[in-house]
Write a structure and sequence with these properties.
4 helices; about 0% strand; elongated
């Protein structure tokens, strides 16, 4: 249990931090120059000047962290799924845990919730098993 839970927690934390940086720092710096975004947002707030150093930093964050987050999210999905299988979670709990990795900040809540559940179940098992 401990190894699988630790791998899940590490991946959940890494993916959560990268997603927060990507969405709350990278995307605004790269895209909030008053122009349209993604073809369906007519204009964005004017937080940065087009071509500025801040916008270049935002572009670098979204380019590199975006790719890193995508790959690491796949690893997160595998580790979360393996933990779910090992702990025999019901499908709804598993699905919420997997999907929360896509929502900034919420991923930390899901990791905490899953960790508490695993620890509580194993503590209960330890009490039931005679030494």
């Amino acid at each position: 249990m401990n190894g699988t839970l630790t791998r899940y927690r590490v991946m959940a934390t890494i993916v959560g931090v990268l997603l927060v940086v990507l969405i709350l720092i990278g995307v605004p710096l790269a895209n909030f120059d008053g122009s349209g975004m993604w073809g369906f947002i007519p204009s964005t707030p004017e937080l940065v000047t087009p071509g500025s150093t801040a916008q270049e930093i935002g572009n670098a964050i979204t380019e590199y962290l975006g790719v890193a987050h995508g790959w690491l999210y796949m690893i997160f999905l595998v580790t979360a799924f393996l933990l779910a299988r090992q702990e025999a979670w019901e499908p709804s709990f598993t699905l919420v845990t997997l999907l929360c990795g896509t929502v900034p900040i919420l991923s930390f809540w899901a990791e905490h919730r899953a960790t508490e559940r695993v620890r509580a179940e194993h503590a209960a098992d330890a009490l039931e098993t005679p030494a």
